[in-house]
Each structure stands twice: as C-alpha cells, then as structure tokens.
Write a structure and sequence with these properties.
Length: 353
C-alpha cells in the first residue's frame, strides 16, 4: 500500500519582500523599509526639536548664591517673568517685595511662591507705574517700612498698547516702561546706597535696536501714533537710563544692568493679539515651541541679580546670561544724559545729580 504524501502548503511571501529578503516588492522599499525610514525621520525631527528648544531657552543661571538677609523688590511681579524672578530669589532665602497694580492677583501669586519655596517672607505692595503719585507714595512707604534694599528689579512693562494717556498726560508705554521706573529708582537710591553693594536691574528688550528718542514729541502728540515705535522708544530708554545711572553711581557701591529676556510666552503680548487676532490664533501653537517659558525668560534677570563680580560691568547690557553689546543707539552718552534730564523734569524729580 502506497504511503500518503504529506500535504503541501502554499507559502506566500510577506508583502513587499521576496523569498530571498533582498528584492524590493511592488512598493519599492517594502513595509519594513518604509517603517524604518519613518522611524528615522521621526527620530531626527525629535532631536531637532530638542536642540531648537534648548537654543531658544537660552542661558541658564548656574549661580547658587544664597540671599538670606537680603531684600529684593520686583515690579510687575504677579505674572510672567516677574513672578518667576520672585520665585527664584525667594528660593534663595531673600525677603521678596512684589510691587503690583492688581493686589488680588498679586496675593495669589505670592501665596503660590510661599508654598513652592517654603519662604514665608514674600509680601505684596500696591504700585501703579503709570501714576507719578502712586510711585512717589510707594517709595515713601517702602523707605518708612523697610530696613534695606539690595536688589531692585524694574521688570514691569506694557507692549504695543493703543495710545493711552496716563493721569499725568504721558503716553502709557513711555510712562510705565521708563518714566515710572526712572522715578522709582531715584526715590529708592538712598536705601540702595545704604545697603551697598546693591544692584538695579532694568528689563529692556532687543527691540531697543532701531529705537529713537524723539525729544520733540516723546508722547506722539504731533505725529501719528505707532505702537511699535513707542515700544522701541521706551525700551531704548531703559538701556540709556541704565547707562547714565551707572555713570552717576560710579563709586557708590550700586551697580546697574539692563537685559533682553528673550521672546516670552506671557501676557505682555495681549495687545499684539488685539491688533491682529487671526495672527495671534495662528501663532499660538508654534509659540509653544518658538518662545521661552516665563521661567526660561527670567534666567538673565536672576543672573544679573546674583552673579558675583558683575560690578565691573555696571551699565552694560545682557542677554541669555551673558554680556552682549547694545545697539549703537543704546550707547550714545549724550542722548543718555539728555534723557535723564528730560525724565527728571517730566516726573518733577528734584535735585538730580
């Protein structure tokens, strides 16, 4: 009797492969090759994103200096980089005074900082930089109630808002970004000097490049208002103020620095989105990748506040935790002196030196 032959099975090749495993299928590279290429593309993309984010994040303050027994004052401290600056300095043990216009939001931010740092010595005070009276009253109360001031961070600002006038008749961007801080700094100088070595840090912007101080029309009374030109003028004023302040304070033990924090995801750009709502909506997602977080944006401020040995660079401009050269218009000593004198006249500051 003849044995039955074993059943035969038809073995079909995997799609896109050959029996030898080397010959491409109808798709060209085969599923395995496509998956491999896709995986490689995804991997390269992720690496590029990580490198890009690291580059955008910029420098990081590596200094571990403690600030126990020191007092820090930060304006515009209830949100954005001001809040993160307060958090960092409170974490170093400083007494942190948060100067804010909205006390409800300020108290929420202060409590969050107290909880996250374990430092209960974080207090809030009301300050409206758009009002000469408010600035003067704030400075008086601060001098009456505080024993020292080691670091003043002039952080608050507005960006590209409509042409609003303050109660003193000043255009808002120039008033808040420059004149309010100019007056505040001068009124607090006696305590800064008595607490020396101390520092004044002015948060400016790369937007000072291309700016121009129009002494004939600082507040756009006689020319068409441009929100961008006004912003640039106010940020250039920060740089020039820092330069002139450092010159006048030479030998006093008080140093002055200004900085560009980077392009930050904060509320500062709300007026820009108001001008161009569709653009703002379209850019919101890319902004998550292409803009610094508030913590990343606070690093250069913290660097200027705590890094030892910066006194020799008083009056200089910083970005990404490193000294950078300000634009030529920010290095004009004649304009810096003239801006100081005009600012003192506008805010009715007596006895400038």
């Amino acid at each position: 009797m003849k044995a039955a032959a074993p059943e035969e099975f038809l073995v079909l090749p995997w799609p896109g492969s050959s029996s030898g495993g080397s010959e491409p299928g109808p798709g060209g590279d085969g599923y395995g090759g496509v998956l491999l290429k896709c995986g490689a593309a995804v991997g390269v993309t992720l690496i590029c994103v990580v490198v890009l984010r690291k580059w955008i994040a910029g420098g990081v303050c590596q200094c571990s200096v403690r600030l126990d027994g020191k007092t820090v004052l930060v304006t515009g401290a209830n949100t954005g980089i001001g809040k993160e600056t307060c958090r960092d300095l409170a974490g170093r043990g400083a007494r942190v005074v948060m100067a804010c216009r909205d006390l409800i939001r300020a108290e929420r931010a202060a409590e969050e900082i107290r909880q996250s740092t374990g430092n209960g010595n974080v207090v809030i005070r009301h300050l409206d930089l758009a009002s000469v009276y408010s600035v003067s009253q704030f400075a008086k109360d601060f001098l009456d109630s505080e024993d020292r001031l080691d670091i003043l961070v002039n952080n608050a600002g507005v960006m590209m808002c409509p042409r609003w006038l303050t109660e003193d008749g000043f255009e808002t961007q120039m008033a808040v970004n420059h004149l309010g801080h100019f007056l505040l700094t001068n009124l607090l100088l006696p305590m800064l000097k008595s607490s020396a070595p101390s520092r004044v840090i002015n948060v400016s912007s790369i937007a000072h490049k291309g700016g121009r101080i129009d002494f004939d029309d600082l507040f756009f009374s006689n020319r068409p208002y441009s929100a961008l030109e006004s912003y640039r003028q106010s940020k250039l004023a920060n740089v020039l103020f820092t330069r002139e302040l450092a010159r006048r304070l030479k030998g006093s033990g008080v140093s002055a620095f200004c900085l560009h924090p980077g392009v930050i995801r904060t509320e500062l750009g709300r007026h820009v989105e108001g001008w161009f709502p569709l653009l703002g909506a379209l850019l919101r997602l890319p902004a998550l990748l292409l803009m610094k977080t508030p913590r990343e944006g606070s690093q250069t401020t913290v660097f200027c506040a705590v890094t030892p040995g910066l006194q020799e660079l008083s009056g200089h401009y910083f970005s990404d935790c490193a000294e950078k050269e300000a634009a030529p218009e920010g290095r004009d000593d004649d304009v810096a002196w003239r801006l100081w004198e005009e600012s003192a006249r506008l805010v009715r500051l007596k006895g400038t030196w």
